[in-house]
Amino acid sequence: MSRDADYPEVNDILVGRVREITDYGAMLEVPGYAGRGFLHISELPGRNIRTVGEKLKVGQTIAVKVISVSKSRDQYNVSLKRVGEDEAKVKLREWKESERAREIVAEAAKRLGADPGLFLSEVEAKAERRYGTLSEALRRAIEGDETVLTKIGIQKEGADAICEVARAKIRRKNAVASGVVEATILAPDGAEKLREIFLKEISSAARRQAEVTITTAGSPRYIVQVRAKTAKAAQAALEKVVQSIIAAVNKSGGTATSKGR
Q: Residue 209's domain spans which residues?
């Protein structure tokens, strides 16, 4: 993350690495946040767990939910069992994409003779302001050209270097189909319900060998993009995802329609 380190909030889903295991829990390191996470043995999935080592090992990366925060103790408590399987898969995939994007920019900095940390911080901040994440900016750049990066304020030399490294390291499915869905659930937990619907569709598409990303174009508009091996497969998957989202939103008491881009 490019922002100053701060504590996470309750119900945030984080990806952390196990740094220490004790008889009753595990300490996690979560990059980008102040403090450290503590996972008590009672928040591990399963029954009759005698030791934390039965479920976790040092160095393992896991997706967890924040259940309480104590700034005075410089610690936040997290749960592994309260994270759904699909939600964990999506979060870990996003994390892997983010880590790969950061590695690409750091390597580009070395080729330019720039300080990797400073260069990464600058590029990531600009990418997040425009595209939400660094990985999304790099994806758009390698599918288009370096102007995707220069338009957000990155010098051409730096943009060229980033694109060169990215194209060598990222292998994308070669067919893309996209559409727009307008979806609204007017309930106190409407935003959370939409999020759950999107996560389910992303995970379901992955099992069908398609890659789905859903980004906001300003609520209630959401861009749905599908990548697959062929144009026909991508379009078919897109139609299936869009119709499934519409059906799920309507079932939840909201409204949803498909819109042309």
A: 175-259
> Residue with structure tokens 């370096």?
146
Query: What CA–CA distance (Å, rounded) separates 91 from 94?
Result: 5
Distance CA 173, CA 50 (A): 44
Q: CB neighbours of 31 closer than 8 A, spacing ≥ 6?
A: 1
Kindly list the strands in the beta sheet with 221-228, ordered across the sheet, starting from the edge strand earlier in the chain. Answer: 211-216, 221-228, 175-184, 255-259
d(CA 131, CA 134): 7
Q: How confident is the model at residue 261 (pLDDT cuts 50, 70, 90)?
A: low
The answer on 127 and 67 residing in a single domain is no
Q: What is the pTM of this model?
A: 0.64
Residues contacting residue 136 through CB under 8 Å, at least 6 positions apart: 127, 213, 215
260: which 2 tokens?
A: 């042309």
Residue 43 domain flag = yes
Tokens for 5, please give them: 């380190």
pLDDT digits (tens, 9 = 90+) for 42-56: 999 988 888 999 999
Beta-strand ranges (E) seen in 105-201 are: 175-184
- Give how many domains the chain has, as a whole number: 3
Encode pLDDT of 126-159 as tens digits: 998 888 889 889 988 887 778 999 999 999 999 9
CB 234 within 8 A of CB 210: yes
Look at residue 190 and give its three-state secondary structure. helix
From the number of C-beta atoms within 10 Å of its C-beta (0-12, 13-18, 19+), residue 143 rates as: middle
